[in-house]
Amino acid sequence: MSELLIGGIVVFILSTFLGASLIGRVPPTLHTPLMSGSNAVSGITVVGAMLVAGAGFGWLSDVLGFLAIVFAMMNVAGGYMVTDRMLQMFKKAPTEGGK
After folding, report:
1. The pTM is what?
2. How far apart are the first and last CA of the chain?
3. For the chain, how many helices (H) and strands (E)?
4. What is the pLDDT of residues 53-77, one digit of tens each?
5. Are 49 and 72 in contact (CB under 8 A)?
6. Packing angle, helices 59-89 and 39-53, rounded to 10
């Protein structure tokens, strides 16, 4: 294995543990705003994954890049759905008689 690959794996593992510890300390009342705010970060992840998948480093980077694109897009779509649902809670319910 090359030093670049080992360094990438180390960064990935450290960022996974850091992310899990940070998210674990967020109170439940803040999870919805946090998820809607993470859409920008997931968008950056999608761009980075597309660069990795299309860079031609080999079949392994193609597969891992594709999986990263799939999971990041699931996170983006889920974040938008949660945000939409959260915003629907703040809309006034229609009253009878149209007033």
Report:
1. 0.57
2. 69
3. 4, 0
4. 888 888 888 898 899 899 988 888 8
5. yes
6. 160
